Amino acid sequence: MTVKTLQDGYFDPLKIALSGQAFRIRSLDGTHTELVAKRRYLQIASLGGGKFAFSCSPEEFEEIWKDYFDLDTDYKAIEKSICAEDTYLHEAAEYGRGIRILRQDIFETVISYIISQRRSIPSITTCVNRICKIAGDTIKAPSLPEPFIEPSESEYYAFPTASQILEHAGELDDAGLGYRLPYVIAACRDFQSGKLTEEMLEQADDGRLFDLLTGMYGVGTKVANCAMLFAFHRTGRFPVDVWIQRIQDRYYGGSFDCSPYPDTAGIMQQFMFFYERTR
């Protein structure tokens, strides 16, 4: 177990779980959140006063979860950078305080956002979990001491590799992918063949990365921007879905000006999305 006191008010696992950026993180109750990522199970318990317990060793926290939750970034300073006259964004940032942009696995996030097209978050979550159960390795639920609670499942599943998904391609009709199935298969082949590698994508600048992603079968602008923001931590990207377009139409005359936020527009997008969807 690892206990950490984090930047006051600027880390909230429950809000992160509800923010829509990841599909295998969920609240167990008002103070406990669980997730599967990095081929591991993690539970977080809120202890009050900015203190949180993580169900991992201090070494694992420093090696994996500190970076995963973007804990070295000063979100208080980001909130203070919001233009004074933008009342809506100030309200959204205050409401969403505690959200942080996760540094997710690249392959998992690319596949998850290919699946996300024209789907609700619960539907995406169901589909991603089915793929993991069909093709992923089993992760047994740990026995946890206080202050943690019992995990919601007896076993979980790691997100499968490209090879594992292709090995189980004949079973994926049961995952509910629909018309997205050929897109997923094509993406897996791109990664398995070496046409695309995580290293290649990570090293690309924003323009090149966008071109590589949109060059994939079935990947358009929105999916590419989501992958850039949530897998590659390109926090200047501003994905536009139906929620964000609705916000732009209602509060910004049809288009949000990202120019004041060249490196943080994606963080502002998350505040806006969460505010509009959950308040």
Can you describe this structure?
The mean pLDDT is 95. It contains 13 helices and 7 strands. It is of the alpha+beta class and 279 residues long. 45% of the residues lie in helices and 11% in strands. The longest helix has 15 residues. Strands 1-5-4-3-2 form a 5-stranded antiparallel beta sheet. Strands 6-7 form a two-stranded antiparallel sheet. It has a single domain, classed as Orthogonal Bundle (Endonuclease III, domain 1).
Q: What Rg, in angstroms, do the CA atoms define?
A: 19 Å
The shape, in one word, is: globular
CATH C-level category? Mainly Alpha
What is the correct CATH architecture? Orthogonal Bundle
The secondary-structure class comes to alpha+beta
Listing every helix as H and every strand as E from the N terminus to the C terminus, the arrangement reads EHEEEEHHHHHEEHHHHHHH
CATH homologous superfamily descriptor:
Hypothetical protein, domain 2
Helix content: 40-55%
Terminal Cα span: 33 Å
- How many domains? The number is 1
CATH topology: Endonuclease III, domain 1
Mean of pLDDT = 95
Low-confidence stretches: none
Our count of helices gives 13
Number of strands: 7
Order the strands across the largest sheet as they lie in space. Answer: 1-5-4-3-2
Percent of sequence in beta strands: 5-15%
Secondary structure elements and pairings:
Elements: E1 2-5, H1 13-18, E2 25-27, E3 32-37, E4 40-48, E5 51-54, H2 58-68, H3 75-80, H4 87-95, H5 106-115, H6 121-135, E6 138-140, E7 155-157, H7 162-167, H8 181-193, H9 198-203, H10 206-214, H11 221-230, H12 242-251, H13 265-278
Antiparallel strand pairs: 1-5, 2-3, 3-4, 4-5, 6-7
Helix pairs in contact: 4-13, 5-8, 5-11, 10-11
